[in-house]
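does this look right to u?? NAP version
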Amino acid sequence: MRYRRLGSSDLEVSEISLGSWLTFGGGVSNAQAEACVAKAFELGMNFIDTANVYSSGGAEEFLGEVLATRPRDSYILATKLYFPMNGDRGLSREQVFKQIDASLARLRTDYVDLYQCHRYDVETPLEETMEALTEVVRQGKARYLGFSEWTAEQIRAALALVPRVEKFVSSQPQYSILYRVPEREVIPLCKENGISQIVWSPLAQGTLTGKYKPGEEPAAGTRAASQQMGWSMDRFRDDDVLRAVQRLVPIAAGLGITMAQLALAWVLREENVASAIVGASRPSQVEENAGGSGIELDEATLQAIDDAVADVVVR
Ligand SMILES: NC(=O)c1ccc[n+]([C@@H]2O[C@H](COP(=O)([O-])OP(=O)(O)OC[C@H]3O[C@@H](n4cnc5c(N)ncnc54)[C@H](OP(=O)(O)O)[C@@H]3O)[C@@H](O)[C@H]2O)c1
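got this back:
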């Protein structure tokens, strides 16, 4: 496993990290989820992403339990706030203080390494959010701050408040071979300002593994076939998308790597991406995905990937 510096922080995160949306505390049994966490540590993954809202606190509770036996400084833990939960929502001063304490209690720890705004809150003045988050850092409850899916304009506004408030070190956008919107504005802006990307759904929720075939029902046991999780995958169930993904199969085979590894190496070709956050429902997936670290893709391969998905890529 290789590691990269997270923005201007002193955190060195594994290039492949473990996510927990839909899986932990919810879609995947606790025994399977525990086996995934154990496999991740065995393979050198040191970075785990969660959120207060995942399984309504269940993902944090699960992680609090399984991480309790490990030394706190042996892993880097990221969580988030913003989305509605038990009648609460947003990034007001009151919410920031309430949600960090609730997350820390569920996670059974005194601090998170990274506290992220899950989205931008248009109903709270940015100064109020940033001042509250800065107090959270000064109280030692979070080491660093990040955001997810903020626009370039919102990121610039937050940077303009520094050094009066803590500076963000990470950005968590959706980014994959199929979804490249962050390349337009967010990545260039973050590069200039010591902010790394930690990207979500780098496998397009499993679609980029090639396991979903055009014209075929998803196999039992996959996210797309799951009643609990499949709702989130509509836009990747389009046959044109699935046909484009199948055109990547010979490219991965020619390199002697798996489709998942090709997709993860592709996001990591961008030096501003510090880590690909990957969900997993079983340890064999974690093992395969860990192999996506340390693969260099040459120009001809990158061009072949672009050609294969040209008609479906979202930019
Ligand atoms: N900030 C945000 O708004 C946001 C949004 C979404 C996600 N996230 C974060 O990003 C993480 C990753 O996103 P994601 O889980 O949506 O997408 P993903 O990592 O692209 O896909 C994960 C799913 O793909 C399947 N999979 C993984 N590895 C595989 C392999 N080697 N072979 C075959 N199938 C494999 C598994 O599902 P099955 O086995 O069930 O098919 C797994 O749960 C989340 O866990 C979360 O921490 C953040």
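The mean pLDDT is 97. idk if thats expected tbh
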